[in-house]
Amino acid sequence: MISLQFLLTALVVVIAPGTGVIYTLAVGLGQGRRAAILAALGCTIGIVPHLLAASLGLAAILHTSAVAFQVVKFAGVGYLLYLAWQMLKSDGALSVSARANPEPSWAIARRAALINILNPKLSIFFLALLPPFLSGNAASAQFEMLVLGSVFMALTFVVFAGYGAFAAATRDHLLSKTAVLRWLNRGFAGVFAALAARLAFEKA
């Protein structure tokens, strides 16, 4: 069940930069290592509803229900555009600046969790990724999906925390460069906006 092939496949998927990685990098640069770890934790927690949906068969319903898919999708699009705006605002929660901008732990983790919760493609992704690695025993299929999903979540946390730690390590070096900070904020905002546009065109 937990084969080398599955671990390599999951690792490749997790390492590929996506919305959660971008958010974790932005938080690491803006608020340091502790905040980045909280962001990684929130992104990981945000996977849980999709894993449960895939395990319980709800992902298939989302896949076949155009209305449900569109509702969740455009909520996600709106949220990503909100994050882009927060990067551009000088006093935005995600703005990378030289001044200390600490946030409550729950706010960092909640924002990260919502990034994944409001992405309807994740449920369908798990429905496609996990079944090929099951043993074939129908009686244990649901349990096996939960186990594989848990391994995927663990890899997500470790990799995202690594990305965040790297960003935090470069924080002090970048904070003294005003022009770099300005372009970083614009760059992150542009990426969030591009991800929102890509999600808007996704189909179930």
The biggest sheet amounts to: none
Order of helices and strands: HHHHHHHHHH
Low-confidence stretches: none
Q: Give the overall average pLDDT.
A: 86
Number of domains: 1
SS-derived structural category: mainly alpha
Shape: globular
Quote the distance from N terminus to C terminus. Answer: 28 Å
| Helix count from the secondary structure assignment | 10
Q: Tell me the strand percentage band.
A: under 5%
List the topology elements:
Layout: H1 4-15, H2 19-31, H3 33-45, H4 48-56, H5 58-64, H6 66-88, H7 105-117, H8 121-129, H9 141-175, H10 178-200
Could you please describe the fold and organization of this structure?
By secondary structure, the protein is mostly helical. The protein has one domain. It has ten helices and no strands. It is globular. The protein starts with a helix and ends with a helix.
